[in-house]
């Protein structure tokens, strides 16, 4: 691929994971999506969102985390069902 690369040098499968384990290298997520939020946009949109949500019962409002969990559960159940067919 590269002219100056040593073609005899090959990495085995999983070498990076073993290297990271051996040297204690870990990955941490410091910020999630909230790191890119512009607060002025939130301050503007939050009253509008609250006004729209007032027409619903609180039992009918779900957080995205709950929806992600339910979707993952559905996928798992479908896989189990497919394996048992």
From TrEMBL:
Q: Which UniProt keywords apply?
A: DNA-binding, Membrane, Transmembrane, Transmembrane helix
Any one GO MF term held by the record is:
DNA binding
Superkingdom of origin organism: Eukaryota
Residues of the HTH CENPB-type domain: 1-29
Q: Which Gene3D superfamilies match?
A: Homeodomain-like
Residue spans crossing the bilayer: 61-83
User: What PROSITE patterns does this protein map onto?
Assistant: HTH_CENPB
Name of this chain's protein: HTH CENPB-type domain-containing protein
| Species whose genome carries this gene | Gossypium gossypioides (Mexican cotton)
Q: What is the lineage of its organism?
A: Eukaryota, Viridiplantae, Streptophyta, Embryophyta, Tracheophyta
């Amino acid at each position: 691929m590269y002219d100056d690369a040593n073609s005899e040098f090959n990495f085995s499968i999983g070498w990076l994971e073993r290297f990271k384990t051996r040297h204690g290298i870990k990955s941490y997520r410091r910020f999630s999506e909230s790191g890119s939020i512009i607060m002025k946009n939130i301050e503007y949109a939050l009253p509008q969102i609250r006004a729209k949500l007032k027409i619903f019962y609180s039992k009918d409002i779900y957080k995205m985390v709950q929806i992600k969990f339910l979707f993952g559960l559905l996928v798992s159940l479908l896989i189990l069902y497919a394996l048992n067919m």
